[in-house]
Amino acid sequence: MTAPVFLAESLAGAAAGSVVTLTGPEGRHAVSVRRLRVGEEVTLTDGAGVGAYGTVAALEGKDRLDVSVTEVRTEPAPRPRITVVQALPKGDRGELAVETMTETGVDAIVPWAASRCVTQWRGDRGVKALGKWRATAREAGKQSRRLRFPSVSDLMTTRQVAELLTGADFAAVLHEEGSTPLATASLPHTGDIILIVGPEGGVSPDELATFAEAGAKPHRLGPTVLRTSTAGTAATALLLSRTNRWN
Predict the structure, then answer these.
(1) What are phi and psi of 199, to 5 degrees?
(2) How far is CA 18 from CA 47, 49, 107, in A?
(3) Collapsing DSSP states into helix, strand and coil, what is residue 66?
(4) 184: which DSSP letter?
(5) Distance between CA atoms of 181 and 174, rounded to whole angstroms?
(6) pLDDT (tens digit, 9 = 90+) per residue, 137-165?
(7) What ranges make up the beta strands (E) of the chain?
(8) Cα 152–Cα 217–Cα 219 angle in degrees, nearest 5
(9) Residues 33-68: tens digit of each pLDDT
């Protein structure tokens, strides 16, 4: 089994032969929850592509450990970059979507306040919900042994999503009535790919028109209709295989 991953505040200056100290919540999790011991292998990452590989050199208290670094790797930014615009699902299905998309390999997640969303992020509730999405992406990134964690943006309106689409090299709205299968769409080898996943009630005609004007046409994913919490994961997996990122 590969070594567990922990998020380090900074890996500046980390190099083979150096020692990096892990403290705070991550140190507590490593020492008190995972119960790591001296000599065990670990991976530290800044979540932005840098990974320090090494072994536990010393333990101090319940929330501090020193890691003796044997190797440092920098993972290049993936090409093409995949962003999923995720309409707010009901209940905890948003966190499920973030978790599985992160484990699969998505690069960025954009929460979207679609007109037919039952869930609404307002005030303190919205701040708390966004915090949960970001914490979920961070924990799923560690669980899946990623060195680059996906970004989770602030909540966007339909107008803001349309503005985001103007910089995409390929954009699509996942829609059961789309005439073009995502599996046969012409995809770029670099740049930005953006997928839009609607809410349980579907993407409204006005939203479809707005997105089409911005360059995102409806595409169908397959013969079945997936939940909003699983469609983004399935589409991400399809794109990762078609763009050779899984090769």
Answers:
(1) -80, 180
(2) 20, 19, 30
(3) strand
(4) G
(5) 9
(6) 999 999 999 999 999 999 999 999 999 99
(7) 5-7, 19-22, 41-45, 50-60, 64-74, 81-87, 108-112, 151-152, 170-174, 180-181, 192-197, 217-220
(8) 85
(9) 999 999 999 999 999 999 999 999 999 989 999 999
